[in-house]
Amino acid sequence: PRVLEPPRAKSHWDYLLEEMAWLAQDFAHERKWKKQAAKKCARAVQKYFQDKAAAAQKAEKAQELQLKKIAAFAAKEIRLFWTNVEKLVEWKRERRVERARKEALDEQLSYIVDRTERYSRQLAANLRRRAA
Questions:
Q1: What phi-psi label fits residue 4: left (phi over 0), alpha (psi between -120 and 50 degrees) or beta?
Q2: Which of 7, 10, 20, 45 could form a Cys-Cys staple with 14, CB 3.0–4.6 A?
Q3: Cα(first)–Cα(last) distance of the chain, in Å?
Q4: What is the band of 17 on the pLDDT scale with cuts at 50, 70, 90?
Q5: 90-120 pLDDT tens trace
Q6: What is the band of 1 on the pLDDT scale with cuts at 50, 70, 90?
Q7: CA 80 to CA 74: how far, in whole Å?
Q8: Which helix (H) or strand (E) holds 70?
Q9: % residues pLDDT > 70 (the chain)
Q10: How far apart (Å, rounded) are the C-alpha atoms in residues 53 and 60?
């Protein structure tokens, strides 16, 4: 049978190998941590620029909306102006028609009054002739 060898004492070389294994593991862990930190930083930078682009787009939409509101207000005011102009033109036309109608009625009244006066004079003359 084989005889068990007594456990040997650790030499300097054994301690060196343990230290090297621990250091390799520590470097691997450090490398992994740095990659994770770099990814996290890259995501943060990417999010920053996405947020910045979204804010710019939102500001552009807000400006476009503001311009639309201004344009709608201007269109409303222009529509109101032309409606008022149309009312004024209609009022002036009605005044002209009314003036022309009044002139025609005045002429007709004048004609009727003149005719009545003429008949009255003729009647008075006939009555004077008959009375004389």
A1: beta
A2: 10
A3: 192
A4: very high
A5: 999 999 999 999 999 999 999 999 999 999 9
A6: low
A7: 10
A8: helix 12-131
A9: 99
A10: 10
Residue 109 DSSP one-character state: H
Amino acid at 93: R
Give the closest residue to 15 by CA, choosing from 7, 6, 23.
23
Residue 3: what pLDDT?
Answer: 84
- Give whole-number Cα distances, 64 to 57, 73, 100, in Å: 10, 14, 53
DSSP 1: -
Q: How far apart are CA 122 and CA 128, in angstroms?
A: 10
CA distances from 76 to 8, 69, 88 (A): 101, 10, 18
Residue 36 Cα distances to 16, 24, 25, 28, 95, angstroms: 30, 18, 17, 12, 87
Q: Any idea which residue has 């005889």 for tokens?
A: 3
Question: Both tokens of residue 30?
Answer: 């450090």
